[in-house]
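Possible race condition, two jobs.
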Amino acid sequence: MLFIGERINTGFADIKQAVLDKDPKPIQHWARLQAEAGANYLDVNLGAVSTKPEDMCWMIEKVQEVVDTPISIDTNKPAILAEAIKVCNKKALINSTTAAAEKMDAMMPVAKEYGAGIIAVVMDETGTPKNVEKRIENAGKIMMKAMEYGIPTEDIFLDPIVMPLKFMQEQAKAILEATRQFTLFSDPPPHIVCGLSNISNGALHKKLLNRTFLVMAIANGLDAVICDVLDTELMNAAVAAELILNRQIYADSFTRQ
């Protein structure tokens, strides 16, 4: 299971202020905590605070001053990606492209040039799919385009687009089924990833929903997640699910304290 730490995001007030003030301390604080918690990647998201590539580069550089965890470059802007990927010390993860041809043709060549992984969200020009079939269709477009660019399957991370359970309850089942079907594209299959916190957006019992949905998604083939890696119960539930599915070797010490 690959864990992508979500906390270095200007959607959080402390990170937003850190970028505005060029104060590295909050960014480096969360980088250390997430790395210590077992994150395989640290997502770095500049958001709407700035459109300047140098600001994203500054964030990445400040993270890399204190940890050596690989970076997930969270941007849909090709100009920012083109500069940010140059400052990554390790193999990066691009977050993200969509299934829209224009977007794939802007993002995938960068992934190929730098040998980066790339998250591909299964939406296209028409918007977010409402059913399993459209998710599968868009995922197929992504896989074909990746093949055209020579991007290996192990560098593709398909995102089925998790929707808020509170407002779109009927979508959860479709997301899980799409996840299962993504595993049939190839052998070995592409990675399958989701932004976990979307499932509990607006809900009261966020941690319970996040934990339960993650375990169900893992059972359907999910092998990567953007999440709160400091949520120990969530992390333990993910590892337990992988043990039950025989993806990891059992040991009594599998839980994190």
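Job #2 (started ~2 s after job #1):
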Amino acid sequence: MALTGLLSEEIAKKRKAAKENAQAKRTKQETSVDTEQSSPEMAKVAPEKEKLLDSVSNEDLERSLKAFDGEDPNLNKEDKLRKLDLLVKAEHRNDAYKAYLDEENSVDPIITLDDIGAITTNKRQLELKLRRSLKGIIKLWECKPQEPPKPYTVGMLKEVKRDLVKLLYRLRVGKLDDSMILSLATIIYYIQLQDFVKANESYMKLSIGNVAYPIGIRDVGIHARHALSKITGEDKSTIANVMKGESTRKWILGVKRLISYSEAINKQTKERA
């Protein structure tokens, strides 16, 4: 795959150079008063593409496509280069995702007060733990679904998994607000302690946009604002989380269902003991 990497880098460099050259000449054409003088300059853009095509031999191109099982005799050279570029980028994305999953699977899913207290200095660790914990509850549900008319069925599980996709993605790319991470971590912390009263209280705070802190955590630099403005929506910057959008509302509801399912399984386990 070393050849593929070198080809990809060379293609990217030449494509970038061609793009910059075309952009510079386009700007010159737009600012020039005499359009006749610009026309010969713009005519030089096409040869840049030819240079890019000529810089890669057909043999190297075919060999690289074969390594990806992407051979297609019906494509011309330009389309083959484009296809190789897409295949290399897809491989890089897959490799990055696999590396992330390896890192995620290496962390302990148990969330501690220290983890929550270190949100401002080690947020990534908390995000990884949250993903593992959420997936852990889902996996338990997959192993122990309830049968109708009980509510926590396979059908509901499918809805929960679908609704939590956005949350899991935001945790992975680091785009979930710190206040939401803190409240979500507090919810999972109490679920793991089997304190479902406090888990539900923390869920309510998450829903209206307040910040939920576990007992033992006083201040991590994230502060709640007045709840009334969040509920009424008078201040758009402090609107309730459940009103921020359909996808946010759905994953918050999905979290609520995970709390309820965990509580039901915990109660069922105690009754059988």
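Residues 76-106 form one domain.
Logs attached separately.
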